[in-house]
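Course assignment 3, question 2. Fill in each field.
Student: A.L.
Task: Predict the tertiary structure for the chain below.
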Amino acid sequence: MSTRDDKEFAQRQVAAMDRFIPWAGDHPLMGPALKQRREEFDMQARQLPSAAPAPRAVLFFTGDPIEGSKGIEVEFMTKVLEHFQQMVKTQYAFTKHGRIGDRARQPGGTEAKLLLTGTPRGSFGLELSQPRASDLFTSTQLSATLVRLTQLIKAAGEDDETFGVELEDVTPRVLGRLRRFFKVLADSKTALRLESGDLSVRLDKERVTQAADRVAAVETKPEMVELRGQFRGATLDTWRFDFRTEAGQSISGRLADELSEPEAALMNGFTNQECVGTFNRISITARGGLPKERYELVAIRPASGNAGQREKKD
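Answer field:
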Protein backbone atom coordinates (compact mmCIF):
# COMPACT_ATOMS: atom_id res chain seq x y z
CA MET A 1 0.00 0.00 0.00
CA SER A 2 1.38 3.44 -0.94
CA THR A 3 1.71 6.45 1.36
CA ARG A 4 -1.30 8.02 -0.37
CA ASP A 5 -3.34 4.84 0.20
CA ASP A 6 -2.30 4.67 3.89
CA LYS A 7 -3.33 8.27 4.51
CA GLU A 8 -6.62 7.93 2.66
CA PHE A 9 -7.41 4.68 4.53
CA ALA A 10 -6.78 6.35 7.91
CA GLN A 11 -8.95 9.32 6.94
CA ARG A 12 -11.79 7.01 5.86
CA GLN A 13 -11.56 5.17 9.18
CA VAL A 14 -11.81 8.44 11.13
CA ALA A 15 -14.97 9.30 9.16
CA ALA A 16 -16.37 5.83 9.85
CA MET A 17 -15.68 6.13 13.60
CA ASP A 18 -17.48 9.50 13.63
CA ARG A 19 -20.57 7.72 12.28
CA PHE A 20 -20.35 4.74 14.66
CA ILE A 21 -19.64 6.57 17.95
CA PRO A 22 -23.14 8.14 18.24
CA TRP A 23 -24.68 4.69 17.71
CA ALA A 24 -22.71 3.28 20.64
CA GLY A 25 -24.25 5.84 22.96
CA ASP A 26 -23.26 5.24 26.57
CA HIS A 27 -22.32 1.60 26.09
CA PRO A 28 -19.52 0.93 28.65
CA LEU A 29 -17.34 -1.09 26.26
CA MET A 30 -18.21 -0.14 22.69
CA GLY A 31 -18.19 3.65 23.19
CA PRO A 32 -14.66 3.94 24.69
CA ALA A 33 -13.30 1.38 22.19
CA LEU A 34 -14.59 3.31 19.18
CA LYS A 35 -13.25 6.60 20.55
CA GLN A 36 -9.81 5.05 21.11
CA ARG A 37 -9.74 3.65 17.55
CA ARG A 38 -10.75 7.04 16.20
CA GLU A 39 -7.86 8.71 18.04
CA GLU A 40 -5.42 6.11 16.67
CA PHE A 41 -6.54 6.57 13.06
CA ASP A 42 -6.64 10.36 13.44
CA MET A 43 -3.06 10.39 14.72
CA GLN A 44 -1.95 8.11 11.86
CA ALA A 45 -3.61 10.38 9.27
CA ARG A 46 -1.96 13.49 10.74
CA GLN A 47 1.50 11.90 10.97
CA LEU A 48 1.62 10.61 7.40
CA PRO A 49 2.94 13.15 4.87
CA SER A 50 0.42 14.81 2.62
CA ALA A 51 0.21 13.00 -0.68
CA ALA A 52 1.50 14.84 -3.71
CA PRO A 53 -1.10 15.67 -6.35
CA ALA A 54 -1.61 12.78 -8.75
CA PRO A 55 0.53 13.16 -11.90
CA ARG A 56 -1.79 14.65 -14.50
CA ALA A 57 -1.75 16.17 -17.97
CA VAL A 58 -4.72 17.24 -20.09
CA LEU A 59 -4.50 17.59 -23.87
CA PHE A 60 -7.23 19.57 -25.66
CA PHE A 61 -7.55 19.40 -29.45
CA THR A 62 -9.38 21.39 -32.12
CA GLY A 63 -9.14 20.65 -35.82
CA ASP A 64 -10.02 18.21 -38.57
CA PRO A 65 -9.96 14.99 -36.44
CA ILE A 66 -12.23 16.58 -33.81
CA GLU A 67 -15.99 17.02 -33.85
CA GLY A 68 -16.46 19.82 -31.33
CA SER A 69 -16.61 18.39 -27.84
CA LYS A 70 -18.46 15.27 -29.04
CA GLY A 71 -15.74 13.03 -30.41
CA ILE A 72 -12.24 12.43 -31.72
CA GLU A 73 -10.95 10.17 -34.49
CA VAL A 74 -9.61 6.96 -32.95
CA GLU A 75 -6.59 6.70 -35.28
CA PHE A 76 -5.49 10.27 -34.49
CA MET A 77 -6.00 9.78 -30.76
CA THR A 78 -4.04 6.50 -30.74
CA LYS A 79 -1.06 8.00 -32.55
CA VAL A 80 -0.81 11.21 -30.55
CA LEU A 81 -1.20 9.45 -27.18
CA GLU A 82 1.38 6.78 -28.06
CA HIS A 83 4.02 9.41 -28.86
CA PHE A 84 3.18 11.43 -25.75
CA GLN A 85 3.31 8.37 -23.47
CA GLN A 86 6.66 7.25 -24.88
CA MET A 87 8.11 10.72 -24.34
CA VAL A 88 6.98 10.54 -20.72
CA LYS A 89 8.47 7.06 -20.16
CA THR A 90 11.78 7.97 -21.81
CA GLN A 91 12.26 11.25 -19.95
CA TYR A 92 11.16 9.68 -16.65
CA ALA A 93 13.70 6.85 -17.03
CA PHE A 94 16.41 9.36 -17.97
CA THR A 95 15.70 11.62 -14.99
CA LYS A 96 15.11 9.03 -12.27
CA HIS A 97 17.22 6.06 -13.33
CA GLY A 98 19.82 7.63 -15.61
CA ARG A 99 19.42 4.86 -18.16
CA ILE A 100 16.74 4.36 -20.76
CA GLY A 101 17.14 0.99 -22.44
CA ASP A 102 14.76 -0.24 -25.10
CA ARG A 103 10.97 -0.22 -24.78
CA ALA A 104 10.91 -3.81 -23.44
CA ARG A 105 13.52 -3.11 -20.73
CA GLN A 106 12.96 0.54 -19.94
CA PRO A 107 13.62 1.26 -16.24
CA GLY A 108 10.57 2.68 -14.53
CA GLY A 109 8.33 1.93 -17.51
CA THR A 110 5.50 0.77 -15.25
CA GLU A 111 6.03 3.71 -12.87
CA ALA A 112 5.56 6.19 -15.74
CA LYS A 113 2.53 4.50 -17.29
CA LEU A 114 -0.43 6.90 -17.58
CA LEU A 115 -4.13 6.09 -17.69
CA LEU A 116 -6.81 7.79 -19.75
CA THR A 117 -8.92 8.95 -16.81
CA GLY A 118 -11.25 11.52 -18.33
CA THR A 119 -12.44 13.47 -21.35
CA PRO A 120 -12.77 17.07 -20.09
CA ARG A 121 -15.05 19.33 -22.07
CA GLY A 122 -13.75 22.33 -23.94
CA SER A 123 -12.85 21.41 -27.51
CA PHE A 124 -12.10 17.73 -26.99
CA GLY A 125 -9.94 16.91 -24.01
CA LEU A 126 -8.02 13.81 -22.96
CA GLU A 127 -7.00 13.60 -19.32
CA LEU A 128 -3.96 11.41 -18.63
CA SER A 129 -3.05 10.68 -15.04
CA GLN A 130 -1.81 8.11 -12.57
CA PRO A 131 -4.27 8.22 -9.68
CA ARG A 132 -2.44 5.49 -7.76
CA ALA A 133 1.31 6.19 -8.02
CA SER A 134 3.33 3.50 -6.21
CA ASP A 135 4.88 5.97 -3.73
CA LEU A 136 5.27 9.66 -2.97
CA PHE A 137 8.65 9.97 -4.72
CA THR A 138 7.37 8.31 -7.89
CA SER A 139 4.34 10.59 -7.92
CA THR A 140 6.48 13.70 -7.50
CA GLN A 141 9.01 12.58 -10.13
CA LEU A 142 6.33 11.73 -12.69
CA SER A 143 4.55 15.05 -12.09
CA ALA A 144 7.86 16.87 -12.66
CA THR A 145 8.43 14.90 -15.87
CA LEU A 146 5.03 15.90 -17.23
CA VAL A 147 5.69 19.57 -16.45
CA ARG A 148 9.18 19.30 -18.01
CA LEU A 149 7.76 17.94 -21.27
CA THR A 150 5.02 20.57 -21.23
CA GLN A 151 7.75 23.24 -21.03
CA LEU A 152 9.54 21.61 -23.97
CA ILE A 153 6.37 21.53 -26.09
CA LYS A 154 5.67 25.16 -25.19
CA ALA A 155 9.22 26.18 -26.18
CA ALA A 156 8.91 24.35 -29.51
CA GLY A 157 6.04 26.66 -30.39
CA GLU A 158 7.90 29.85 -29.43
CA ASP A 159 11.28 30.44 -31.08
CA ASP A 160 14.56 28.69 -31.96
CA GLU A 161 16.54 30.13 -29.05
CA THR A 162 14.01 29.22 -26.36
CA PHE A 163 13.65 25.73 -27.76
CA GLY A 164 17.44 25.24 -27.87
CA VAL A 165 17.71 26.14 -24.18
CA GLU A 166 14.90 23.76 -23.17
CA LEU A 167 16.61 20.88 -24.99
CA GLU A 168 19.50 20.95 -22.52
CA ASP A 169 17.62 19.08 -19.76
CA VAL A 170 15.93 16.53 -22.01
CA THR A 171 17.42 13.27 -23.24
CA PRO A 172 18.06 13.20 -27.02
CA ARG A 173 15.93 10.04 -27.11
CA VAL A 174 12.83 12.22 -26.61
CA LEU A 175 13.43 14.08 -29.86
CA GLY A 176 12.27 11.28 -32.15
CA ARG A 177 8.93 10.99 -30.38
CA LEU A 178 8.56 14.78 -30.19
CA ARG A 179 9.02 14.99 -33.98
CA ARG A 180 6.32 12.36 -34.54
CA PHE A 181 4.00 13.96 -31.99
CA PHE A 182 4.10 17.33 -33.78
CA LYS A 183 3.96 15.71 -37.22
CA VAL A 184 0.67 14.00 -36.33
CA LEU A 185 -0.74 17.33 -35.14
CA ALA A 186 0.54 19.30 -38.15
CA ASP A 187 -0.54 16.72 -40.76
CA SER A 188 -4.00 16.61 -39.17
CA LYS A 189 -4.24 20.42 -39.00
CA THR A 190 -4.93 20.28 -35.28
CA ALA A 191 -4.41 22.93 -32.60
CA LEU A 192 -3.25 21.91 -29.12
CA ARG A 193 -3.78 23.09 -25.56
CA LEU A 194 -1.79 21.23 -22.93
CA GLU A 195 -2.08 21.59 -19.16
CA SER A 196 0.16 20.02 -16.53
CA GLY A 197 0.77 21.22 -12.98
CA ASP A 198 0.40 25.02 -13.03
CA LEU A 199 1.58 25.26 -16.65
CA SER A 200 -0.76 25.76 -19.60
CA VAL A 201 0.29 25.88 -23.26
CA ARG A 202 -1.77 26.97 -26.28
CA LEU A 203 -0.55 26.30 -29.82
CA ASP A 204 -2.85 27.24 -32.69
CA LYS A 205 -2.54 25.43 -36.03
CA GLU A 206 0.07 27.86 -37.34
CA ARG A 207 2.27 27.51 -34.25
CA VAL A 208 1.89 23.71 -34.35
CA THR A 209 3.24 23.74 -37.90
CA GLN A 210 6.12 26.02 -36.86
CA ALA A 211 6.88 23.75 -33.91
CA ALA A 212 6.89 20.68 -36.17
CA ASP A 213 9.40 22.40 -38.51
CA ARG A 214 11.54 23.57 -35.55
CA VAL A 215 11.77 20.11 -33.99
CA ALA A 216 12.43 18.45 -37.35
CA ALA A 217 15.34 20.85 -37.93
CA VAL A 218 17.28 19.67 -34.84
CA GLU A 219 20.43 17.81 -35.88
CA THR A 220 21.98 15.07 -33.75
CA LYS A 221 25.43 13.73 -34.62
CA PRO A 222 26.82 10.79 -32.60
CA GLU A 223 30.57 10.19 -32.69
CA MET A 224 32.77 7.67 -30.86
CA VAL A 225 35.83 9.32 -29.30
CA GLU A 226 38.62 8.33 -26.92
CA LEU A 227 39.78 10.85 -24.33
CA ARG A 228 42.66 10.53 -21.90
CA GLY A 229 42.34 11.97 -18.41
CA GLN A 230 41.31 11.24 -14.83
CA PHE A 231 38.16 9.28 -14.09
CA ARG A 232 36.32 10.90 -11.19
CA GLY A 233 33.85 8.10 -10.53
CA ALA A 234 30.34 6.93 -11.38
CA THR A 235 27.10 6.83 -9.39
CA LEU A 236 25.09 3.70 -10.11
CA ASP A 237 21.83 5.05 -8.65
CA THR A 238 21.72 7.88 -11.18
CA TRP A 239 23.91 6.21 -13.85
CA ARG A 240 26.09 9.32 -14.07
CA PHE A 241 29.87 9.76 -14.31
CA ASP A 242 32.47 12.52 -14.05
CA PHE A 243 35.70 12.70 -16.03
CA ARG A 244 38.45 15.33 -16.29
CA THR A 245 40.45 15.30 -19.51
CA GLU A 246 44.18 15.95 -19.60
CA ALA A 247 43.32 19.25 -21.31
CA GLY A 248 41.43 20.29 -18.16
CA GLN A 249 37.89 19.85 -19.50
CA SER A 250 35.38 18.51 -16.96
CA ILE A 251 32.88 16.10 -18.49
CA SER A 252 29.72 14.91 -16.78
CA GLY A 253 27.31 12.58 -18.47
CA ARG A 254 25.57 9.25 -18.47
CA LEU A 255 26.92 5.73 -18.52
CA ALA A 256 25.96 3.91 -21.71
CA ASP A 257 22.69 1.97 -21.58
CA GLU A 258 24.37 -1.21 -22.81
CA LEU A 259 26.55 -1.43 -19.68
CA SER A 260 25.41 -3.86 -17.00
CA GLU A 261 25.50 -2.85 -13.33
CA PRO A 262 28.50 -5.14 -12.60
CA GLU A 263 30.39 -3.59 -15.55
CA ALA A 264 29.54 -0.10 -14.32
CA ALA A 265 30.63 -0.99 -10.78
CA LEU A 266 34.00 -2.22 -12.06
CA MET A 267 34.58 1.20 -13.64
CA ASN A 268 34.77 2.73 -10.17
CA GLY A 269 38.05 0.83 -9.71
CA PHE A 270 39.55 3.51 -11.98
CA THR A 271 38.40 6.40 -9.79
CA ASN A 272 41.07 9.15 -9.50
CA GLN A 273 43.38 7.24 -11.86
CA GLU A 274 44.77 8.25 -15.23
CA CYS A 275 42.90 6.32 -17.89
CA VAL A 276 41.43 6.41 -21.38
CA GLY A 277 37.67 6.63 -21.72
CA THR A 278 35.66 5.66 -24.78
CA PHE A 279 32.70 8.01 -25.17
CA ASN A 280 29.71 8.35 -27.43
CA ARG A 281 29.78 12.10 -27.97
CA ILE A 282 26.43 13.39 -29.24
CA SER A 283 26.37 16.84 -30.80
CA ILE A 284 22.90 18.44 -30.74
CA THR A 285 22.23 21.52 -32.84
CA ALA A 286 18.92 23.35 -32.76
CA ARG A 287 18.06 25.56 -35.73
CA GLY A 288 20.07 28.79 -35.54
CA GLY A 289 22.01 27.64 -32.46
CA LEU A 290 25.47 26.38 -31.61
CA PRO A 291 26.19 22.66 -31.19
CA LYS A 292 25.85 21.35 -27.64
CA GLU A 293 27.61 18.15 -26.67
CA ARG A 294 26.40 15.26 -24.53
CA TYR A 295 28.66 12.38 -23.44
CA GLU A 296 27.92 8.72 -22.74
CA LEU A 297 30.72 6.65 -21.23
CA VAL A 298 31.00 3.34 -23.09
CA ALA A 299 34.26 1.87 -21.72
CA ILE A 300 37.34 2.74 -19.75
CA ARG A 301 40.88 1.32 -19.59
CA PRO A 302 44.20 2.19 -17.94
CA ALA A 303 46.27 4.89 -19.65
CA SER A 304 49.55 3.69 -21.14
CA GLY A 305 52.42 5.51 -22.81
CA ASN A 306 52.19 9.12 -23.90
CA ALA A 307 49.67 8.81 -26.67
CA GLY A 308 47.74 11.76 -25.24
CA GLN A 309 44.27 12.33 -26.56
CA ARG A 310 43.02 10.60 -29.64
CA GLU A 311 39.65 10.32 -31.26
CA LYS A 312 38.11 7.52 -33.24
CA LYS A 313 35.49 8.61 -35.70
CA ASP A 314 33.00 6.27 -37.30
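Instructor remarks: The chain has three domains: 3-47, 56-217, 220-302. Helices lie at 3-24, 30-47, 74-97, 136-156, 160-166, 173-187, 205-216, 261-267.
Grade: pending
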